[in-house]
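Ticket closed. Logging final result for Aminoglycoside phosphotransferase family protein.
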Amino acid sequence: MTVRQSSTHEIDLRDEIVIKRYRSWDRLEPQCEWAALNLLAEHAPGLAPLPITADLDATPPTVVMSRLPGVPLRGRQAGPEVVGALAAALTRLHHSVPIGESLQVAAWNPAAALAHVRAWAGKKPDLGDDPRVARAVADGTAWLAGQALDRLVADPLPPVLGQADGNLANYLWDAGTGQVHILDWEDSGRADRAFELAEVGEHISHVDGHLDSDLLLAQLDLTPVEAARVREFRRLIALGWLLMLGPNGPTAHRNPPGALERQAERVLKLL
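Final structure:
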């Protein structure tokens, strides 16, 4: 969900490689990306770019990786074939890559999200006069004030490697192979699988196209406990985006027409 007002890196696209130069690295973004790419190359080859070289101590730090084919899912109407490939990619990611103690916790995690959304709710942002928006905010903030989320955050399940950014621009559909590849691992780390799936399902990038989140989740092997966690985290992330979509919010300059009202309907449906 993290909103960035400017790009955190520069990308140099070559025929077969991508050179990524970081503009910020205070959260060890280059180290996180390099560690994730190496884990993925060993345990889930083809799912993400192959790591080639890195200069993590340079200014700016640089990572060189292979260039993958495909088109971003953001802005697409993702049909059943694409949704199935995305489900397969996420299943492979979460079940193939072992998580060691040395891997740091992903910066965008349940505790960070809960604090972030509660902080935005406390600001009482101006979201206009639409009654459905007002109802979604009222119902959402009442739900947010309960203790269920605190208990959920305090009792995580065994971790997975998480990408920690559900922006659909980070998922490439390769029509030639029928696979989805995953990019942008600079925020990755130890993560809660349910939170990661909720982040993909509810990231605001869905307003630029269409991804049937319910269809996606139906194709994942979720236990009842995981399914319940995903539902709660989806509510949290969707509410967080609603609170930021107002005319004075950080995404106002790029909100498509009707985004606020559609997000309110989404929150009400999830609640």
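The radius of gyration is 18 Å. No further action required.
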